[in-house]
Amino acid sequence: MRKIDGAALALLIVGGLNWGLVAIARFDLVAAIFGMDFGETSAITRVVYGLVGVSALWVAARATTLLGSDRLHVPVGA
């Protein structure tokens, strides 16, 4: 599981950086890596974007395990 968790985290970082660059500089890092212009997609970029999405689902599903359930506890009345 640790390798999958690490890979998912790395993909989430790439996805987060990409969206930040899109918002701030109108620059699509994933498209640029594969030699395309902003907004262009290909099969490989769609695979990367899909893997980022699956990684988000993976990390969300494992959040309590990855962070420790006690760190996610919100006291009643908070």
Provide a compact summary of the structure.
This protein is an all-alpha fold and 78 residues long. It contains 4 helices and no strands. The longest helix is centred in the N-terminal third of the chain and has 24 residues, at 2-25.
Keywords:
single chain
Proportion in helices: 55-70%
Q: Taking all residues together, what is the mean pLDDT?
A: 86
Structural class: mainly alpha
Indicate the low-confidence ranges by residue numbers: none
Number of strands: 0
Whole-number radius of gyration? 16 Å
Number of continuous helical runs: 4
What is the end-to-end distance?
33 Å
How would you sum up the major sheet?
A: none
Query: Order of SSEs, N→C?
Result: HHHH
Summarize the SSE layout with pairings.
Blueprint: H1 2-25, H2 29-33, H3 43-61, H4 63-67
Helix pairs in contact: 1-3
Description of the molecule:
With 78 residues, this protein is mostly helical. It is 68% helix and 0% strand. It has four helices and no strands. The model has no long low-confidence stretch (mean pLDDT 86).
